[in-house]
Amino acid sequence: MKKRILLTGGSGMVGRNLLEHPEIGRFEVLSPDSRELDLLDPNAVEAYLRLQKPDLIIHAAGRVGGIQANLKAPVRFLMENLDMGRNVIGAARSAGVKQLLNLGSSCMYPRNAPTPFHEEMVLQGELEPTNEGYALAKIVIARLCKYISREDPAYQYKSLIPCNIYGRYDRFDSASSHLVAAVIHKIHEAKMSSLTSVEIWGDGVARREFIYAGDVADCLIRSIDHFGALPQMMNVGCGGDSTIDEYYQIVAEVIGYRGAFHHDVTKPAGMMRKLVSTQKAQAWGWRAETALRDGIAKTYDYYLQMRNQKADPRATR
Ligand SMILES: NC(=O)c1ccc[n+]([C@@H]2O[C@H](COP(=O)([O-])OP(=O)(O)OC[C@H]3O[C@@H](n4cnc5c(N)ncnc54)[C@H](OP(=O)(O)O)[C@@H]3O)[C@@H](O)[C@H]2O)c1
Questions:
Q1: CATH 2.30.40.10 for domain 4-311
Q2: Atom 33 in ligand 1: which residue has the minimum CA distance?
Q3: I want to staple 195 with a disulfide (CB 3.0 to 4.6 A). Which of 54, 113, 190, 255 is the partner?
């Protein structure tokens, strides 16, 4: 019999990449979107889980966004991520679901922690203020998983901590997008408008780690298959980072933009460096396979496909 999995956030970037993974057919996957099941409604979540009784839950729903979105709405980022996590985890426990995989974020690490971040460094220092609300919610939910497993080891509630993610189904609008998607959109537009220069927020030397969403889906499939051996908290990273300037350069090469770049140092750039340790993941037997340039090329193909569909409504997704 197929393992029955409830995937929250199935319409999001991580969820969609998992749903189109070549191995996903081995499982029975329930993936209600927010209209079918609003995770902010505790009664609805409780009723759903009592009825469906999945073998495993992958909690990939959340309120997610880049620096601008986080700065603008910290209350929403804190409350929604906290409430969704609490509702899903509390109801899972009441319904007797024994395995749950929660998605955290590398924002959970202290701003001044030495890199690479090891899982034990969570709560060892002050958080980055630009996304503190989001990070606090993620920390509380990861701790909740840990406490539940500690109180009753029959309940294996674990957390993955991905670094930044980019790829197919990313959001490219500048208000809520993350770095790679935002840069692809910006440079594509610059090329189309024959702009001679593109602005970069901050001085461009801050370093960021971005993993391809297809690789995160790979890690989730392996987590389903090897759930028992999965550590309580485990980073999901690609093992290397690049400067913000380098992301702009690689995207420009992929797109074929030949203009210049200039920096606006009055704009916030966030943490200087964010790189997660991949030691635990490697010991567990997994590593990301997609090279940055290849991932960016695939993401740009997806971006162009989406734009063409908007231009031609007869085209299908
Ligand atoms: N993207 C990244 O760079 C990144 C990095 C590290 C960790 N993560 C974590 O990975 C997880 C997935 O991120 P993502 O990038 O896939 O996010 P995303 O593309 O923004 O998708 C968010 C998902 O959450 C769902 N959702 C939001 N509010 C909901 C509600 N009230 N009820 C039910 N569903 C709700 C959305 O469903 P609807 O479409 O129906 O609203 C959507 O499916 C999140 O926990 C995030 O914190 C992401």
A1: no
A2: 34
A3: 190
